[in-house]
Amino acid sequence: MFASEYWKEAGACPDIIAAAKSIAAGIPLSAIIARDEVMDAVAPGTIGGTFCGNPLACAAALKTIEIMERDHLADRACEIGKKVMDRYKEMAEKYPVIGDARGMGAMVGIEFVKNRETKEPAPELTSKIINDCASMGLIVEVAGTYHNVIRFLAPLVMTDEQLEAGLDIFERAVSANV
């Protein structure tokens, strides 16, 4: 259910996981998940905060986790990510302004460059693509140090048809600007 699961094959296992934002489906809540020896090293009552233990938020988090497990949303994140990466790789063959595509699960970034060889960032192009996407009904966001990466954060409950429609809009916006 957590991104740290992707690293199991490499033999990595986190000592501490901090979770927040979507853990309670939009209701303010955060959580610290840690190995017993880490949590036992802290004196009782010293870990807390303003969003600690609110009954409504905790109930929302429990229901969110139940739905994530029931609907296999971690697996769905991998499916979405693969479809997005496959589409981005196809696009990279057609559009030399795509410098790289990378991501994990359903969070994928596509980097735009002026020149693939030099990897010179193309923030102006990225901005135009984002604006064109918005005018066609697709919301994407800029990321990266040089503002030349478009981050695609797909809802895990979207249908394949919705995903394809979004990717079609994205490709139209790229095509219109190169």
TrEMBL record:
Q: Which InterPro entries match?
A: Aminotrans_3, PyrdxlP-dep_Trfase, PyrdxlP-dep_Trfase_major, PyrdxlP-dep_Trfase_small
Which Pfam families does UniProt cross-reference here? Aminotran_3
Keywords tagged on the record: Aminotransferase, Pyridoxal phosphate, Transferase
Molecular-function GO terms, alphabetical: pyridoxal phosphate binding; transaminase activity
- Matches recorded under PANTHER family: ALANINE--GLYOXYLATE AMINOTRANSFERASE 2-LIKE, PTHR45688
So what family is this one in?
Belongs to the class-III pyridoxal-phosphate-dependent aminotransferase family.
Q: What is this protein called?
A: 4-aminobutyrate aminotransferase-like enzyme
Q: Which organism is it from?
A: Catenibacillus scindens
